[in-house]
Inverse folding.
């Protein structure tokens, strides 16, 4: 079969690899119909996530058709159209039984590596480094899905592939980011980053009752989508973020701040240079400009929600502000399985149209170029969907 | 576990507290102590003895190198007897009190000698089983079930990756075979020392085995009935002769992380019915180094 493989920093290629097959009783093999490139895949592309090996098959956002199931997967049959959550979760452990699926204790065969970095290991994730299991990903013709009796969800006939695809990651991720804000009637939520996760966070914050959502970015095409999703827009190239947020909230600051940017934030001036240099020298693994700004902007007693991906160590985090302003910080890889069903309902009844963020539809051969285009935000790229259905 | 049972920590603790108490008295009220034991006013000497007592006492109570600290008390006792003898020449000493004190010190000396011997013996026993391994993990299943899975020793090779087979024999004995890198095998015989269903099991290897260890596994209910905390404790020893090299090879494989990985697989088997793996999955072309570590298909 053909698959998109990581071949080194800034090198992604299509390779002919052996077909995916069943390994454990609770596995299924899925023939991928649609896959997407995630913003977090760009951190792999840029080489900022440790534990990648040449030849790793990429991709953790995908949906497709079941072709084979193991003896432990009574819920699926060949031909079922399913969307697959990016966290691999057993459904049996302490965390799964509390619906904290991304913290599954049993799905990461390399848990010992993750424990060295973080103390404890999260779940395994498709195509997202050997720290998170080294599982082959879904930017491929076929993919093996472990614990297929727990993760994949059948797609109703009336729902298109593209409508269902983003239930695998970014829609639940944006939703959980907003849910983590504990939004109260009348709240103002500020969202840094109007990529796919930021846009879904904006829509979700509105659905959860936020009176105002302020979207922060610098790319006009992204800001205009944010505006369409119901946000007031703040272009940080034209306005000072902290000053503007203070002014727009009557001096109090947003009730909640969402960092939908993560480890490769673009900032201005000295701060950006400082983080660029330290990251290049591997003295820190992140450029945490957004999380700093979110902490600084947030109102007293507010919440900073971090769906953006960070992997290691960040410098100059204003912990003093966290303490003295009594902030709550919430984060985590998304417990996708918890949100798939209710969000599928919201798609079905038209509350959310996930397809509005798609800007590029390509075939597998164009994937390597698309990584570079998406990373550089060329051609107003916001979301790339790869069509694999032949 | 089996090793620590052979110690006599009660004696250490009593002697330890006695040392600390006596030391404090000598340090803080040397005149009163001097009158009591009949040596008169020897404040400086008694204060120094007090410091020595406190060091021995704290050392014994700390539980580190107990044989050394018990031996330091024996030395102290001999010093005390010598000092008592010398004090008789002084005019302000009280001979009958000094005699009574000397008798008491001699009694303590005997106890100290006994304690230090016990400690020396047990530290020697420990020296033979000198590579300790501890690992623990919580499993989302009641202690009785985890115990039952483990107690059926034939199950162990399903999650202990280096084990080839375990065969249970008569009289609580079992035959074990482990794989070593390079296709070598390591064999030993083990016997159950203690078996409390649903709670714990301990074992030791039988003489003539190629590797020498004692171990225990405890199954403790998690707080609020949340599953089972499994605690494994093993002390490996080095056998002599031709087996030594093989045993060293096993120990070089970092037994602590081996046991931790084994527990992880046990947890996966019990909780999910299978062991998470990527072995056999497809991959693109690996680099040369990647090929050395990879068990996938490419």
């Amino acid at each position: 079969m053909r698959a998109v493989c990581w071949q080194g920093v800034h090198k992604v290629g299509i390779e002919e690899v052996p077909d995916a097959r069943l390994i454990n009783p609770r596995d299924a093999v899925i023939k991928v119909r649609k896959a997407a490139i995630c913003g977090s895949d760009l951190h792999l592309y840029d080489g900022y996530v440790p534990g990648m090996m040449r030849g790793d098959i990429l991709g953790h956002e995908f949906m497709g058709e079941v072709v084979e199931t193991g003896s432990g997967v009574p819920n699926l049959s060949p031909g079922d159209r399913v969307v697959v959550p990016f966290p691999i979760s057993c459904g049996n452990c302490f965390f799964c039984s509390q619906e904290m699926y991304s913290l599954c204790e049993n799905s990461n065969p390399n848990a010992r590596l993750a424990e060295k970095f973080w103390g404890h290991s999260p779940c395994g994730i498709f195509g997202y480094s050997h720290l998170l299991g080294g599982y082959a990903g879904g930017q491929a013709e076929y993919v093996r899905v472990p614990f297929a009796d727990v993760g994949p969800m059948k797609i109703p006939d009336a729902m298109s592939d593209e409508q269902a695809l983003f239930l695998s990651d970014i829609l639940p991720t944006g939703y959980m980011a907003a849910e983590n804000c504990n939004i109260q009637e009348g709240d103002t939520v500020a969202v840094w980053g109007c990529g796919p996760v930021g846009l879904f966070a904006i829509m979700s914050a509105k659905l959860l009752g936020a009176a105002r959502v302020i979207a922060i970015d610098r790319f006009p095409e992204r800001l205009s989508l944010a505006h369409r999703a119901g946000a007031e827009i703040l272009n940080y190239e034209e306005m000072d973020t902290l000053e503007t947020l203070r002014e727009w909230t009557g001096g109090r600051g947003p009730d909640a701040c969402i960092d939908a940017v993560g480890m490769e934030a673009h900032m201005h001036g000295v701060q950006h240079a400082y983080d660029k240099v330290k990251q290049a020298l591997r003295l820190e693994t992140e450029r945490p400009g957004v999380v700093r700004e979110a902490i600084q902007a947030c109102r007293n007693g507010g919440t900073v929600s971090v769906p953006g991906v960070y992997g290691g160590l960040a410098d100059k985090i204003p912990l003093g502000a966290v303490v003295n302003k009594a902030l709550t910080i919430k984060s985590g890889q998304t417990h996708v399985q918890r949100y798939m069903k209710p969000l599928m309902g919201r798609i079905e009844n038209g509350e959310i149209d996930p397809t509005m963020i798609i800007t590029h539809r390509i075939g597998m051969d164009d994937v390597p170029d698309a990584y570079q285009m998406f990373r550089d935000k060329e051609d107003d790229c916001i979301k790339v969907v790869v069509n694999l259905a032949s | 576990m089996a090793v620590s049972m052979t110690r006599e920590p009660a004696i250490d603790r009593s002697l330890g507290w006695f040392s600390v108490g006596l030391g404090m008295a000598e340090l803080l009220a040397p005149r009163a102590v001097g009158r009591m034991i009949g040596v008169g006013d020897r404040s400086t000497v008694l204060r120094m003895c007090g410091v020595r007592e406190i060091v021995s006492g704290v050392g014994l109570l700390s539980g580190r190198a107990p044989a050394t600290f018990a031996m330091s008390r024996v030395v102290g006792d001999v010093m005390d007897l010598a000092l008592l003898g010398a004090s008789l020449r002084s005019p302000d000493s009280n001979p009958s009190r000094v005699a009574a004190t000397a008798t008491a010190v001699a009694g303590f000396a005997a106890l100290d000698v006994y304690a230090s011997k016990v400690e020396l013996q047990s530290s020697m026993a420990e020296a033979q089983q000198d590579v300790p391994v501890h690992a623990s993990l919580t499993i989302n299943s009641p202690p009785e079930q985890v115990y039952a899975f483990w107690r059926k020793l034939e199950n162990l090779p399903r999650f202990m990756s280096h084990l080839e087979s375990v065969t249970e024999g008569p009289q609580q004995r079992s035959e074990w075979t482990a794989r070593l890198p390079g296709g070598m095998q390591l064999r030993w015989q083990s016997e159950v020392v203690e078996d409390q269903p649903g709670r714990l099991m301990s074992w030791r290897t039988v003489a003539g085995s190629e590797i020498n260890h004692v171990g225990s596994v405890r199954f403790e209910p998690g707080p609020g009935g949340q599953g089972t905390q499994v605690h494994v404790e093993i002390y490996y020893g080095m056998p002599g002769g031709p087996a030594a090299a093989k045993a060293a090879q096993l120990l070089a494989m970092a037994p602590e992380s081996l046991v931790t990985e084994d527990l992880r697989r046990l947890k996966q088997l019990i909780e999910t019915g299978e062991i998470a793996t990527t072995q056999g999955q497809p991959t693109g072309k690996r680099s040369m180094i990647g090929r050395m570590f990879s068990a996938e298909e490419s």
Summary: The CA atoms of residues 68 and 156 of chain A lie 20 Å apart. Residues 336-348 of chain A form the longest helix (13 residues). The radius of gyration of chain A is 20 Å. Chain A has two domains: 2-169+334-387, 171-331.
